[in-house]
Specification:
The N and C termini lie far apart (about 65 Å). Strands 1-4-2-3 form a four-stranded parallel beta sheet. About 40% of the residues lie in helices and about 15% in strands. Helix 2 crosses helix 3. It is elongated, with a radius of gyration of 18 Å.
Length: about 140
């Protein structure tokens, strides 16, 4: 039987996705690629349901704590980084396990997204000032 290229375990929080992923990773030599839009942020430990290091049981987990809360992080960036980890896992003959509940990230992985233009800080400040004057 051919090995799958990638396995996705998706769904709502607290449904056992991480425990299943760790069990599958042990059985089939897998690596977890987190698909959680809040787990990417460092210091967002409450309410994100990040798997603690000790509970990962030696299974590599990727795309957790990769951005500061003040950083701009997008589905497009996540997809690019996830593709790199998937490729690396496959090179090492491991099965990449995409695990999480952020459906838009999954969509970004398999369907192209446009790159948003850079933020115009001057225009943003003008609009914020305008809104404050109207409040």
């Amino acid at each position: 039987m051919a090995r799958p290229r990638v396995v996705a375990i998706v769904g709502p929080t607290a449904t056992g996705k991480s425990a299943l992923a760790i069990a599958l990773a042990h059985r089939f030599d897998g690596e977890v690629v987190s698909c959680d839009s809040t787990a990417v942020y460092r210091r967002f430990d409450i309410g994100t349901d990040k798997v603690p290091l000790a509970a990962r049981q030696g299974v590599p987990h990727h795309l957790i704590d990769v951005a500061d809360p003040t950083e701009r992080y997008s589905a497009s960036r996540w997809a690019a980084e996830a593709k790199a980890w998937i490729s690396e896992a496959e090179t090492d003959r491991h099965i990449p396990l995409i695990v999480g509940g952020t459906g838009f990230y999954i969509k970004a992985l398999f369907e192209p997204l446009f790159d948003a233009p850079p933020v115009n800080r001057t225009k943003r400040q003008e609009l914020e000032t305008w809104m404050e004057q109207r409040s």
